[in-house]
Specification:
Elements lengths: L8 H9 L2 H9 L11 H26 L4 H8 L3 H10 L14 H17 L7 H11 L3 H13 L18
Helix pairs in contact: 6-7
């Protein structure tokens, strides 16, 4: 930032020698050597972009804490397996191994109806990351199971049918 403001090596060395008392004394002088201006056409879009990135990062962390599978993070955010593993370690999350358990009929139906509600309210069939978190909170079903079933239903074109599948396990074969 200092180089962009036209500070060279001599100015940087001079700044290193200054202490807090020097800064207070410089503040009392009536002569100033800096001209700082705000470019509002850049400032507000930049803040909006930073806010959007912060919200996306928060959502991604929330998904990981809720045990989102690698495939979900890859599809929704373009994550690599290395990035997924690194973030799970940073968040001190236990490794998840194996397939999610198959849901019982009651949970399957609850998820089906909640999923149908969401996709009927949207213009496209694909759910957002927030939708998946909402489904988890609404149904109490783990994200790994939600992801696996929704992907299965989308793959086999079961989206928007009137009744839930009676035998979900048979659709994978």
């Amino acid at each position: 930032a200092l180089r962009a403001m036209n500070f060279g090596p001599k100015e940087l060395d001079a700044l290193k020698e200054m202490n807090l008392a020097d800064l207070y004394r410089a503040d009392t002088l009536r002569v100033h050597c800096l001209k700082i201006a705000l470019d509002r056409t850049v400032f507000w879009p930049m803040l909006d972009n930073l806010r959007h990135q912060r919200e996306s990062d928060d959502l991604q962390r929330e998904l990981l804490v809720a045990d989102a599978p690698l495939e979900m993070m890859q599809q929704l955010f373009g994550w690599s397996s290395r990035e997924y593993t690194r973030w799970r370690r940073l968040l001190t999350l236990a490794p998840s191994v194996g397939r999610p358990p198959e849901l019982n009929e009651t949970d399957t139906h609850a998820l089906w109806y909640a999923w149908q509600e969401r996709i009927e309210a949207r213009e496209q069939n694909a759910l957002s990351a927030t939708d998946y978190l909402d489904l988890q909170q609404q149904t109490g079903i783990g994200l790994r199971s939600i992801w696996a079933l929704v992907q299965r239903w989308e793959t086999y074109g079961e989206g928007l049918s009137a009744t839930p599948p009676d035998r979900v396990a048979e659709h994978g074969t």
